[in-house]
């Protein structure tokens, strides 16, 4: 078995026709932050969806052409992309087969289902970093303690971020538990009991954390919809702080998302339409 070669980031997205026979898209991307803007109905979400649809089964893209979508990646011979998609909608769960799979009755919306799956991945992530820490501490390396701390740093950063974000409502992450739960005035809350905006923020940060600092493409379709305006302002910075190796590709309507110095990373759909 040859090793799967993963791309560090997407360099260019080309789409033959955004809708039947119209609008050829060529979008040259920044390795880190890409913000797609434009009025409703101009095709922002369609562009994201076309790319994501093609990245099936763990991110393999056959010979860089996905039904009229061509991706250039770095390094150019990579055949796989690690990616995730965050959508803004906290809609009720439609699919009954999904509902039957879930043991937890409090999972009622798409965002809950996302958080439910993320909880599982978060437990795996903690096992992985736990094993890495043990390995380092047993290695007899004189810098073992420093290295072990470095491995657990992102998790601590994530926990501190959540405490800061949720401080206003008096919620704190319970750090003694392996799964994510909060305390609020002596009461324990599961993620599904959070507000839509809090769930959304948790889902984004958790997705980024469990990428475990790997090169990764994070697609976000109007992630700001239910977010507090201060959170919108800090969203990109927080994501890059948690994983400096992530490439962000997002659509937005909100000026707040780009306030903290991301103006030059904004692309209008009309600018990339040939």
Please provide a written account of the structure:
By secondary structure, this protein is an alpha/beta fold. About 35% of the residues lie in helices and about 20% in strands. The chain contains six helices and twelve strands. The chain has helices at about 45-55, 95-100, 110-140, 145-165, 195-210, 230-240; strands at about 10-15, 25-30, 35, 65, 70-75, 85, 170-175, 180-185, 185-190, 215-220, 245-250, 265-270. α6 (about 230-240) links the parallel β10 (about 215-220) and β11 (about 245-250). The model has no long low-confidence stretch (mean pLDDT about 85).
**Through-space gap between termini:** 41 Å
Q: What's the number of extended β-strand segments?
A: 12
Overall geometry comes to globular
| Biggest sheet architecture | 5 strands, parallel
| Strands side by side in the biggest sheet | 6-10-11-3-12
List the helices and strands and how they pair.
Layout: E1 9-15, E2 25-28, E3 33-37, H1 44-54, E4 65-66, E5 69-74, E6 83-87, H2 96-101, H3 110-138, H4 144-166, E7 171-173, E8 182-184, E9 187-189, H5 196-210, E10 216-221, H6 229-242, E11 246-251, E12 266-268
Parallel strand pairs: 3-11, 3-12, 6-10, 10-11
Antiparallel strand pairs: 1-2, 1-5, 4-5, 7-8, 8-9
Features:
four-stranded antiparallel sheet, 36% helix, alpha/beta, five-stranded parallel sheet, 6 helices, 274 residues
At a glance:
With 274 residues, the chain is α/β, with parallel strands linked by helices.
């Amino acid at each position: 078995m040859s090793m799967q070669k993963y791309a560090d980031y997407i360099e260019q997205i080309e789409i033959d026709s955004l809708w039947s026979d119209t609008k050829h898209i060529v979008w040259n991307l920044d390795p880190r932050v890409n913000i797609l803007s434009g009025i409703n109905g101009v095709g922002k979400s369609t562009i994201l969806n076309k790319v994501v649809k093609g990245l099936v089964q763990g991110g393999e893209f056959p010979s860089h052409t996905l039904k009229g979508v061509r991706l250039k990646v770095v390094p150019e011979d990579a055949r796989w992309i690690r990616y995730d998609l965050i959508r803004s909608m906290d809609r009720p769960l439609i699919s009954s087969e999904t509902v039957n799979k879930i043991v937890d009755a409090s999972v009622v919306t798409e965002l809950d289902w996302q958080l439910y799956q993320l909880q599982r991945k978060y437990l795996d992530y903690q096992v992985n970093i736990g094993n890495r820490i043990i390995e380092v501490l047993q290695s007899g390396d004189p810098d073992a303690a420093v290295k072990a701390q470095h491995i657990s740093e992102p998790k601590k950063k994530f926990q501190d971020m959540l405490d800061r974000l949720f401080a206003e409502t008096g919620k704190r992450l319970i750090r003694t538990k392996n799964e994510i739960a909060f305390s609020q005035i002596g009461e324990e809350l599961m993620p599904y009991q959070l507000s839509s905006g809090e769930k959304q923020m948790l889902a984004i940060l958790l997705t980024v954390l469990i990428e475990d600092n790997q090169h990764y493409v994070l697609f976000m379709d109007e992630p700001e919809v239910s977010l507090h305006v201060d959170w919108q302002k800090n969203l990109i910075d927080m994501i890059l702080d948690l994983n400096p190796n992530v490439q962000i590709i997002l659509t937005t309507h909100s000026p707040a998302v780009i306030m903290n110095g991301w103006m030059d990373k904004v692309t209008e759909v009309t600018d990339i339409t040939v």
